[in-house]
UniProtKB/TrEMBL annotation:
Residues 6-206 form the ABC transporter domain. It comes from Marinobacterium rhizophilum. SUPFAM superfamilies: P-loop containing nucleoside triphosphate hydrolases (SSF52540). The gene is ccmA. This is Cytochrome c biogenesis heme-transporting ATPase CcmA. InterPro entries: AAA+_ATPase (IPR003593), ABC_transporter-like_ATP-bd (IPR003439), ABC_transptr_haem_export_CcmA (IPR005895), P-loop_NTPase (IPR027417). Keywords: ATP-binding, Cytochrome c-type biogenesis, Membrane, Nucleotide-binding, Translocase, Transport. The lineage of its organism: Bacteria, Pseudomonadati, Pseudomonadota, Gammaproteobacteria, Oceanospirillales.
Amino acid sequence: MAEPLLKVENLYCERDERVLFDGLSFAVGAGEVLQIEGQNGSGKTTLLRILGGLSRNYEGELYWRGEPMAEVVDEYRQDLLYFGHLPGVKATLTPQENLGWYAALQGADLASIDSALQQVGLRGYEDVPCHMLSAGQHRRVSLARLYLSQAALWILDEPFTAIDKKGVAQKEQLILRHAACGGTVILTTHHELQLDGLRRLNLDQLAGTS
């Protein structure tokens, strides 16, 4: 059996003196899509922040490609795309400019940036300063990174927020293509996903709160 890309062992985390999860263990491999489920406050975003390296408020072990995370953290970051609640968009820059640094890291050119923006419904807004765009459009600028990414692992926290039904279907197909090419996706969403082979991990059940 192939070694999983990401493995979590005996993860423990508490917040405000409340245990979110204890003894949480799971693994995801190439080509898999894992949805993290649970009611509000169950720790979904906290878990994704831990996996994304944005929180150290936990006990337990993380492994990337079979190696302890602490020993391969630089390689892990290069292989990771994290999409959180905040869009990470600079208001003074245009969508093109906001994506320029990320595209350069991925070896993508200006045409690829414009194509990505078109895919998220921002055609014609490429050169508009982001302070003139809505909050939903800021999120679309951030989502455009998915069309530029060469990362093996995508960690996506509510990626379909402010996206219409057509846009959700397009992003589902993008996730499926990423998995079909050997990529791995871990995500949270309130949408009913239509993805073949989708795995689910329910934090409520693990915490005994459901």
